[in-house]
Design goal:
Length: about 80
């Protein structure tokens, strides 16, 4: 089943809200950079502050919590370490 673009964007917004933690800054989808590649909708996001100003000092690095990829991590601090961040 293929989702419409609007349904896919709504699902992306819901996922972003669900995955945003209590200590994360306010995040929003970067609508200017949303694109479709090979029938996959790529939906980038960043901090609200960056999206309002486009000031690189406010840009967040694209790091996902490693706990999603390594469920056996022993501590929460270790789970959120991202190489290169």
């Amino acid at each position: 089943m293929k989702l419409s673009r609007s349904a896919a964007l709504k699902a992306a917004e819901e996922l972003l809200a669900q995955e945003t933690g209590p200590y994360d800054p306010p995040l929003k989808i970067d609508n200017e950079l949303v694109m479709e590649k090979a029938d996959i909708l790529v939906v980038p996001y960043n901090s609200e502050q960056y999206l309002e100003t486009r000031d690189a000092r406010h840009m967040l690095l694209d790091c996902w919590p490693l706990e999603n990829h390594r469920p056996s991590v022993s501590s929460e601090a270790e789970a959120h370490q991202c190489p290169g961040c």
